[in-house]
Amino acid sequence: MALEIEGTLSQKLPVQSGNSARGPWSKQEFILEFPDGNFTSKACFTAWGVDKVQDLAKYQVGDKVKVSFNLKSREYNGRWYNDLQIWKIAPAGAAQPVAPAASVAPEAYAAPVAPAPTLEDMPAEDGGEDLPF
């Protein structure tokens, strides 16, 4: 599941690294503060891998960022743990790729819209019964 969220980088935790059976690994967790209705919420995200840790290093506490992430859960000893693993981090409000312009504007295909009826468009009252039965 891929999700995106924009917020303020409020804290960067220390880089963690080590060696596993598959080789060396590196990760860094950070706290993102984001608006949640009338309140501000915080979430802890994880940058896994040297390349993602280097991407995170480009940003400082207080920077507005847009984070693309996957939500993962795992069970350990009967308890469930969630992990928000980022796969992309960019400045907030970064320009999105623009689709190529169509040769004909979409409005050209729209049917014309009739104006809303007015009081003058209503039939005149003849004073008689208007019910058909």
Q: How large is the radius of gyration? A: 28 Å
- Measured as a percent range, the helix fraction is under 10%
**Overall form:** elongated
Uncertain ranges: none
DSSP strand content? over 45%
Q: Quick one: CATH superfamily of the domain at 2-91?
A: Nucleic acid-binding proteins
The ordered string of helix (H) and strand (E) elements is: EEEEHEE
The CATH top-level class label of the domain at 2-91 = Mainly Beta
Largest sheet: 6 strands, antiparallel
How many runs of DSSP E, i.e. beta strands?
Answer: 6
CATH fold group of the domain at 2-91: OB fold (Dihydrolipoamide Acetyltransferase, E2P)
- Classification by helices and strands: mainly beta
Task: Give the N-terminus to C-terminus distance in angstroms.
Answer: 61 Å
By CATH, the architecture of the domain at 2-91 is named Beta Barrel
Output the number of helix runs. 1
Name the average pLDDT: 83
